[in-house]
Amino acid sequence: ETSPHLPAPENVEVYSYNLQSLLRWSPVAVENGSVLYTAQYKSGSYKEWSGMGCAQTPQPQCGVPPELGRRWTLWFRVRAELGNLSSAWVLTPAFVPEANTTLGPPRVNRVSASPHSLLVSISPPFPPEHGDSLQYLVSYWENTTSPARKKLSVVETLFQIGNLKESTVYCFSIQVQLKIISGHLLGEERAPECHRTALS
Fold first, then answer.
1. d(CA 184, CA 127)
2. Is 66 left (phi over 0), alpha (psi -120 to 50) or beta?
3. What is the pLDDT of residue 146?
């Protein structure tokens, strides 16, 4: 039975980073006994709620199953349970993984310096799916007091920053851009790293 005495979970939200999503909420405090939680989801076209592997869990969180498509519109709900008492369900707003995730910065694997260029090898922040359209936006500058930033857009994970001066320190920063149905999703910018070009 739904109980007015058992408070519903608060601060229910979907946290999503690099397309890995987690439903989480604040724990419900009761005088005695330990509260369990049940979480469910439904997708845009269905009326029924489905389990997501979190029925009567003591954890105040539940991983969103990866098989739920990136472009699906999803809703989630969670309630608290204590013995045979249940709280009211708390619903989340609509969530679309691809549009509502935060993309982290790409990983820089290695940088090889020659006199007039830097060869940079990177990895995307998440394992791309077939058909993903990814671009890397590179910003680079000479490490001086008032540097002029230059921009570069590449699709390869191995690319060159060219036309540089020899034996000079250059810094660069990168972010990823994913093409999605509604336009583009821009990822977080990587903290700048600096390298000196070689002497010819």
1. 18
2. alpha
3. 87
- Taking the C-alpha atoms of residue 195 and residue 187, their distance in angstroms, rounded to an integer, is 23
Is 80 exposed, middle or buried, given 0-12, 13-18 or 19+ CB atoms closer than 10 A?
buried
> Can you tell me the mean pLDDT for 73-96?
95
pLDDT for res 109: 98
For the chain, the domain total comes to 2
Identity of residue 187:
G
Query: Average pLDDT of 103-119?
Result: 98
Would you state the structure tokens that stand for residue 38, as one six-digit string? 């049940």
2 in a structural domain: no
Torsion angle defined by CA atoms of residues 65, 69, 74 and 77, in that order, rounded to the nearest 10 degrees: -10
Average pLDDT of the residues of the chain: 94
Q: Two tokens at 103?
A: 């993309």
Count Cβ atoms below 10 Å from residue 168 Cβ, excluding itself: 15
On whether both 91 and 132 belong to a single domain, the answer is no
- State pTM to two decimals: 0.86
